[in-house]
Design brief:
Blueprint lengths: L1 E4 L2 E9 L2 E6 L12 E3 L12 E3 L3 H14 L3 H7 L2 H7 L7 H10 L1 H7 L4
Antiparallel strand pairs: 1-2, 2-3, 4-5
Helix pairs in contact: 4-5
Length: 119
């Protein structure tokens, strides 16, 4: 694991080919917005001319979280756009690359528990 700062690490798991997943070391550092509209920078979201997401609507909120978790390349990408409570609540419903899910769940057992499906 490579430390990218004191608040995040680049894991051995891949977010996508050629890019290792980056994970915050403490979920409490995720203090991003929970309401309103957020515009992602082009380096995080390039597939549409409209890069805004309405966090008050379930689908755009989930899409923003999936995008940031997959495309983050610096700790600020995570701490600026993600919120701890929202991440935990959304975790079971997020569609993520296997490497991203494994990296986050290895570092944060609370996410693994949130994603556990009752028998």
């Amino acid at each position: 694991m490579e430390a990218v700062s004191t608040i995040a690490v680049r894991t051995r798991h891949q977010a996508r080919p050629g890019r290792r997943a980056i994970v915050v070391t403490d979920l409490a550092s995720l203090r991003g917005p929970v309401h309103g509209t957020v515009e992602l920078p082009l380096r995080l979201f390039w597939s549409s001319p409209d890069r805004t997401f309405d966090l008050d609507k379930p689908y755009p909120r989930r899409w923003l979280y999936q995008t940031v978790l997959r495309e983050a390349s610096r700790p600020e990408d995570l701490t600026r756009y993600l919120d701890r409570g929202t991440l935990i609540a959304l975790w079971p419903d997020l569609s993520l690359p296997a490497g991203v899910r494994r990296a986050w769940e290895e570092h944060h057992p609370a996410l693994r528990a949130a994603g556990a499906v009752p028998a």
